[in-house]
Specification:
Blueprint (H helix, E strand, L loop, with lengths): L2 H19 L2 H18 L14 H16 L1 H5 L8 H19 L2 H13 L7
Helix pairs in contact: 1-2, 1-3, 3-5, 3-6, 5-6
């Protein structure tokens, strides 16, 4: 399975857990456990998206996939969000991306951080 597919399934894990439990902590823990399973298979120790022993390439794939799925949530999931789902998810994703930007300082993280914090927010509910 590719990391693009894993990222898509990780997003679905978050979404499904949130819809079921209305709890972002549960959704985030479930998502972390899901990603951890695949990270271990390729030799990475994974705790969360700020784990600095996961390759930058994989993290960028995950951040990009989550951001794109957030942007098109209504079309993809036929889910109308009043902000209860997307804004906390946005903060979670942005915080992890920022931690990686501080650690790695690479242009790739600068680009995705800018997209998450400036462009993506234009598509989130008021």
């Amino acid at each position: 399975m590719s990391w693009l597919e894993i990222s898509e399934k990780a997003f679905n894990t978050y979404f499904e857990n949130f819809v079921k439990n209305k709890d972002h902590n549960i959704a985030q823990k479930s998502t972390n456990k899901f990603i951890e399973l695949y990270a271990k298979k390729v030799g990475f120790k994974f705790t969360n998206l700020s784990s600095n022993n996961v390759s930058q390439k994989i993290l960028i794939i995950i951040f990009n996939q989550f951001a794109q799925r957030m942007r098109y949530l209504k079309e993809d999931k036929n889910y109308i969000d009043n902000g209860e789902f997307l804004w906390p998810m946005h903060s979670w994703l942005s915080n992890h991306c920022y931690a990686n930007l501080q650690y790695y300082g690479t242009d790739q993280f600068k680009v995705i951080q800018k997209y998450i914090d400036e462009e993506l927010t234009e598509y989130l509910p008021d």
